[in-house]
Amino acid sequence: MVFWLAGVILLFALGLGPYLSHSPRSQCRCGPDDDCWPSLGAWGALNGTVGGQLVQLSPVGDVCHEAKYSNRSCTELIQHFRNTTWRVENPAALQVHTWEYSRQQKQSCHVSDPLEPGQCDRGRVAHYSAYVQSVLEVQEVVQFAASNRLRLVIRNTGHDLAGRSSAPNSLQLHTAGLKGIRHVESFTPQAPDGRSIPSEGPAVTVGAGVLTGELYSAAAEGGYTVVGGSCSTVGIAGGWMQGGGYGILTPSRGLGVDNVLEVGVVTAQGIYVTANQHQNQDLFWAVRGGGGGSFGVIVHVTFRTYPDVPAVVSKLNILSPHGPDSAFWDTVTDLLRTIPILVDRGDAVQAFAMPVLPGNQSFLTIESYLIHDSHAGGRDALDELQKRIEDRGLPVESSDEPFDRLSTYLALPKGLDQAGMGMMTASRLVSRDFMKSAQGPSRISQTLAQLSYGPGDVLSLEGMVGGPAVQRKATADSAIHPSWRSALMSLTLGRGLPSDPDWDAYDRIQNELAMTQLPVLESLEKGAMGGYLGIPFPYESNPSRVFWGSHYNRLLALKGRWDPDDLFITRLGVNSERWDEEGMCRVDRKQVYLRQYYKFLDRVRAWAAHRVGKS
Ligand SMILES: Cc1cc2nc3c(=O)[nH]c(=O)nc-3n(C[C@H](O)[C@H](O)[C@H](O)COP(=O)(O)OP(=O)(O)OC[C@H]3O[C@@H](n4cnc5c(N)ncnc54)[C@H](O)[C@@H]3O)c2cc1C
Ligand SMILES: *[C@@H]1O[C@H](CO)[C@@H](O)[C@H](O)[C@H]1NC(C)=O
Ligand SMILES: *[C@@H]1O[C@H](CO)[C@@H](O)[C@H](O)[C@H]1NC(C)=O
Ligand SMILES: *[C@@H]1O[C@H](CO)[C@@H](O)[C@H](O)[C@H]1NC(C)=O
Ligand SMILES: *[C@@H]1O[C@H](CO)[C@@H](O)[C@H](O)[C@H]1NC(C)=O
């Protein structure tokens, strides 16, 4: 401890602290206050190339503040604040609205309830948004951003949980208008020089802006199924696929990345390329798990499709009247023993534990999807689970809903879409070996029981990230962390953030997740397992290790090849360590090392502060 404190003192004694936050301007992109920012005429010309669909953005809350106040617009904003579709459609809004705020600059355009006139600052909201509707328009925007050295951000639905679909001082490329869904019975990837290659069977090609729910509806109508997530307003071809992508068909059909047959991409040079197993194989490998906003603009993706199957959706709701006591955590142990049985059959489980609810109660809700040809084995495992819980004296409410066609269930609106809420997540994968070991399940629940939970904290147990199809070697070669192939579950902790810009509370929650919760999740398997890039801890101190592990060096090399000037940079993303927090200025190698050292010291300081606070 003493050594680190000495290190901090030395760092500041040498005057390095301030040095770390500055870069020579030549290493920076052009911001709105710089001479190199495009003139109004230049923006007008860009507008012409995107069919007049360039808009100047201001924060959504500005209509509730002095200069731009409008009773009608403000009333509409308040009415739609939690409306996920409204947020998808509004380029200045994000689903997790706290990412519209800038914690660094302490800026927001918060709309308080009851309404009070206050200041409206831009925060992390982009200055311009270009709504693109064709490959050509994507190319125009990419070339404009590259030649004007702008901070370009790709924004689809704005669901990102680490602020990666927005950035201060940026130009936003808005992909929501790239629609189109085409299903074919026999899909043949495009080969170079017209070589003939075999068909891959039935597949669907979707535009980058297609929402999961839109694809599910088309699939229900067409009588096929496709792997996708649970939230209907998440973009399936944007961030979901590039982060890995899981859903209830994952144990039986694989991850999102395992089901991609082809992608169309506009590169940093503004060139449109097709990537699949036959051409541009390296880019094809990188976009499947390398992360959104890092290798190019995806214009469309072709996914494998599957026959429709009957399914049973089974729910168990358990209310523990005495809070998170031993009966509650033993129930979690029982659940952890049941998940591998279901997942190994190709069924899926999604459970949410809420340890602290009003009235000293705890709640556990378990949703299982029996999609195996024969539902009997899964049913037995669930009956056994229910019996155990009842034997513990906990009240269980159960229900079963059979569907002749799984596609019908998938297309139903789920009400899982939470928008206009602040939230910080942290996640780690858990291996199949550990979950199937004799002591694994009880070790996990004992460990989870030790964490401190606040009201509304949600512990999510996702039994749909691994299983037989994820382990299949033939489709396993992609950029995601290698530990996915031995994973069976993902554990995610979600903590609510105050809706108003309470910077101290955000700091406290970040520190607690970084110093206590995440190290505990990490310790379960001593750092061997990765975390899910799509639902990450947004301040992960070593993203390359956690999200890609041994795949990172290859990703870096491919980044250098496809985007040598780092036009595409996101928080936590590939090569982001060479840029400042918001991707505006490059940091040189010396600074990279110093910054890592500085971050480490920061963690030690926060850890020490946390310990002191606890004792
Ligand atoms: C309520 C909720 C539920 C979720 N449920 C699931 C789930 O069931 N399963 C699961 O696997 N994940 C789930 N996620 C995580 C989700 O997959 C990620 O948030 C995902 O990144 C969202 O992608 P998007 O394109 O919709 O969002 P955006 O925020 O618009 O984009 C996310 C990232 O992808 C980049 N990007 C978007 N489009 C493109 C493109 N065309 N080309 C290049 N880069 C692009 C953006 O720059 C950004 O970095 C959930 C998230 C939320 C908030
Ligand atoms: C782009 O052009 C359209 C149509 O001419 C216009 O309505 C819009 O205001 C322009 N956008 C900007 C940012 O100038
Ligand atoms: C709009 O005006 C009405 C009537 O004056 C008022 O009651 C209401 O609070 C206003 N709403 C907002 C959001 O300002
Ligand atoms: C949510 O917003 C969308 C788009 O603006 C709108 O069509 C829909 O009616 C809204 N839903 C609710 C419940 O208000
Ligand atoms: C809440 O539940 C715990 C057991 O988990 C118990 O020890 C405690 O006394 C309960 N508190 C109240 C106020 O009922």
TrEMBL record:
Cofactor(s) this protein cannot do without: FAD
Species for this entry: Penicillium fimorum
Keywords attached to this entry: FAD, Flavoprotein, Oxidoreductase, Signal
Signal sequence coordinates: 1-21
SUPFAM superfamilies linked: FAD-binding/transporter-associated domain-like
Pfam families attached to this UniProt entry: BBE (PF08031), FAD_binding_4 (PF01565)
InterPro entries tied to this protein: BBE, FAD-bd_PCMH, FAD-bd_PCMH-like_sf, FAD-bd_PCMH_sub2, FAD-linked_Oxidoreductase, Oxid_FAD_bind_N
Domain of life from the UniProt record: Eukaryota
Signal keyword on record: yes
Domain FAD-binding PCMH-type: residue ranges: 121-308
Entry similarity comment: Belongs to the oxygen-dependent FAD-linked oxidoreductase family.
A single MF term (Gene Ontology): FAD binding
Name of protein: FAD-binding type 2
